[in-house]
Amino acid sequence: MMKTVIVMQGISGAGKTLYVTSYYPEAVVVSANNYFTDTFQNYRFDRRFIQHSHNQCLSHFNSALEHGKELVIVDNTNTTIDEIEAYAKLALEAAGYRVEVHTILEDPEVAHARNIHSVPLHAVMNQHQKLESSLKHMRQSWHHSFVCV
């Protein structure tokens, strides 16, 4: 199997984590949300630490690549090209990694109703707008596909 990085893309509540845990149980999964989850799996988001959580996620991602893990998945919203690019560039620079972007499209109101992190509707709508815009600019080297949960 070729070493692969999958960058998940989808608004909060779209089902990214469900998709990842259902189809890729053997993967190394990195997520900014992990920073806000304690040892008892309680999620406590604090906006003051959002940048730190993403830095930590990127650090764990780099570590997985450096250790040559076969399958590494980034389970964040990644609604902009720049957010995807941060991971894709590192993966492509690492020897032998294929980059895939798996996008889950979901109605923002449906996603808002089921998101478990209490993301407000206006923020989910904003994510949706950014995601829609990003679809026009996907890099060919990223092997983009739409997936369903």
UniProtKB/TrEMBL annotation:
<protein>
    <recommendedName>
        <fullName>Zeta toxin domain-containing protein</fullName>
    </recommendedName>
</protein>
<dbReference type="InterPro" id="IPR026302">
    <property type="entry name" value="NEDD4-bd_p2"/>
</dbReference>
<dbReference type="Pfam" id="PF13671">
    <property type="entry name" value="AAA_33"/>
</dbReference>
<dbReference type="InterPro" id="IPR027417">
    <property type="entry name" value="P-loop_NTPase"/>
</dbReference>
